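So, is this right?
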Amino acid sequence: MTAGESSIDAVQITVPSLVRLNRHAAGIRLSSGRVRARQGGDYQSPFKGRGMEFDESRLYQPGDDIRNIDWRVTARTGKPHTKLFREERERPVFLWVDLRGPMFFATRGVFKAVLAARLASLIAWSAIYNGDRVGGVIFSEHVHHELRPQRGKIGVLRLINQLVDHPAWLRDSPVPPEPGAGSRAIMRLRRVLRPGSLVFLLSDFRNLDDAAETQLLRISRNNEVVMIQIHDLLESELPPAGLYRVSDGSDELLLDTYDRRRVETYRRHYYEHCERLARLARLGNIRLLSCTTSEDPVTVLQSGLGVRQSK
């Protein structure tokens, strides 16, 4: 939690709290640039940017890309001409927001689900500053909301209301992970995407099977994809040697971290999960960022995506 933040804010979201993020979003850049590494295995790669539309042809100039030669005009005039392109005025920005059971967890900071909602809201607000349209898929184990891209403040407020009103927040007891839920959500995302979109996936990426990864690689062929891995520090490293009582609100267990073999197996399992995500990112030319439940989402996005320069 940040200074002045209540314990309720750490486990729940409200429309006013997500609307207030608007004032921070203007400083987050979603336009073409370089993603700076946030964790081991990341790499630098330029955004593909918006889709490009043909504008006009002009006489070829030294230094022009020969792949853009307009052969029809060249043949008609007898002089080499180059095609000029301009960026589309608006671009669909899609948010894929995971509200499955494992996202309702944290040992410090805020629930992973709360952080995902804040990141999604910040990205959505930044998108309208960029003149883009906002859509997405918000899903849990059993409930999926699909939002077609919509421009302006109305599109962001629709996303925020769907985040806040999603039934996942009403769970009285934890819902067990369902392996197929993430895969189905990615398939739904593919159905609503159009080529040239900018896609953000906000999740801990637990229990994503081979089918989900295949779908994601297909999405990355024609779209710019950014994966933001949300995690709690306890998921990567067990606490120092001792006996710890752990509860999910209904059941309790005693965690014994004196067993070094168990601690090492736990650590290795998490880093294998991270390595799998890194390999997926490399295969699909996907941007992979990381955010812990105790980090400031504004700082993470500015660090990973870049800071918008004020005019």
User: Anything to note?
Assistant: Strands lie at 52-59, 81-87, 92-98, 133-139, 144-151, 198-203, 224-231, 243-247, 252-256, 287-292.
